[in-house]
């Protein structure tokens, strides 16, 4: 039986709700821009990143359904897990209205999820190192795409961070730690932004094994690889 987990709640736990059909597994489209130049054959295509897209599921009703619970379930935004890809999740939101009259009268309806292009592992442990004499850490990006990790650095003073031997950024740790969030492109300590304590680029991880190294007084490092797929 098909099911979904939406915002950490399983469709099986919603009284009277059936997941009749899941969307096929598909890849998002690439956004492009093309420029034609006089005197040159063809055009120049610039790749602008992948598009967000929609995934539509078919739902139905059984006896003794709880319509209020169903309506409350299909709202908002969060993580979406589909039972035909149980180890991955999408960042999604429901933006279109659902025809609940059709659901009541014909016992079937469509729910459209607007999903971001990348999917992530449901369970992915962080790489954590309590530093003694070490100056580097191996981190695996299990996905097939370049990932944008979340790296937390514990220590004092200025830390230079390198990925695969290339210096990426430098941070000044003024508090207990500083977190570098490459997805959000923010540096912070708790809820306090620390972007002014960072210079350079936000780290990215190639598919496969990456070596994260550093220069400076670092006592601990935590890396969430954020492995991702299209």
Question: What does this protein look like?
Answer:
It is a single chain. The chain is mainly β and 230 residues long. The chain folds into two domains: 4-121, Beta Barrel (Elongation Factor Tu (Ef-tu), domain 3); 127-229, Jelly Rolls (Sandwich). Helices cover 6% and strands 53% of the residues. The protein is built from two helices and 19 strands. The strands form three sheets. Strands 10, 11, 12, 13, 14, 15, 16, 17 and 18 form a nine-stranded antiparallel β-sheet that branches. Strands 1, 2, 3, 6, 7, 8, 9 and 19 form an eight-stranded antiparallel β-sheet that branches. A hairpin with a 2-residue loop joins strand 1 and strand 2 (9-10). The model has no long low-confidence stretch (mean pLDDT 94).
